[in-house]
Every structure is written in C-alpha cells, then in structure tokens.
Amino acid sequence: MQPEIKVLVEKKLVGIKITMSLASNKTFELWRSFMPNKKNILNCLSNQLFSIQVYNSAFNFNTFSVDAEFEKWAVVEVEDFSNVPNNMETFILGTGLYAVFYYKGLSTDTKIFEYIHATWLPNSIYLLDQRPHFEIMDERYKNGDPNSEEEIWIPIKPKNNT
Q: What are the boundaries of each domain within the chain?
C-alpha cells in the first residue's frame, strides 16, 4: 500500500480532547462525549470528523510502549473560532507534509499502523515528523464495519532535511 504525499494547509478545528494511552484506550469515551455536542458547533466547513493524536517529544515509535500517554482529539474543521461551544476547545492543525494512507477495514485493526511505521516509513525517503497524526472520517466511515473507509495522515519530512 503506497500513500499519497500531500501538503496539508492549516486547518482551524473545534472539539474535545482526552489524555490516554493504548493500554488505557479512551477513544470510545471521547467520541461518545463529542458526537452529541457536535451539533453545537455552528460554523463547520464539512461533515468530516478528525481524530487527532498529539504525541509529545518523548514519545518514541521505535521503542513503542502501550503505556505511553498522548492527547487524542475529536474535532471538526470550522471557518473561524467565533462560535466555540463552552465545553469545547480550539486546535490549529498546522501546514505540513503528510503521507496519506487510504484505509479500508476495522478501525480496531492495528496492522495498518504496524505496516506504516515498521515497513513503509523505514523504506521510504521520509522520516516521521514531530507533528500531529490524524485520521479523517466522512460518510464512508462506518464504525465496526470491515468495509469502513478512512484516511490516515502521518506527518513526514524528507530524510535529507533532518
């Protein structure tokens, strides 16, 4: 599976976040809290949902630990930050280079991430960049369905730009 290399243009996002690890996965709790309140975000640009992971600089994908904590966000893109609901926060996803994988399958299947980090990335002309990772889900995403589709965006930089 080869990704499409894209430059992401800055996006303004609104939603909620939670600190978690894979051992203490709170993804379901995050989305269960976000989805009923999504209707309160009045200036959405689309129906796309963004699931963002923000890893701190100490997070190491090479010596991966299921106990390592990170921030996970459930957000939507907005025109501006003029109408942020009280129980939500803003997030700016900055411009940058990404490898975009078009994934079809269960969101609980981690084989795609194993492939990206253990096979594709080491054999590519890119390195992982220290920026947010995220998935975009639209009408093709169907939670719990093996025919579900989503986009997986991995932040990258050329190996010669270290």
A: 4-161
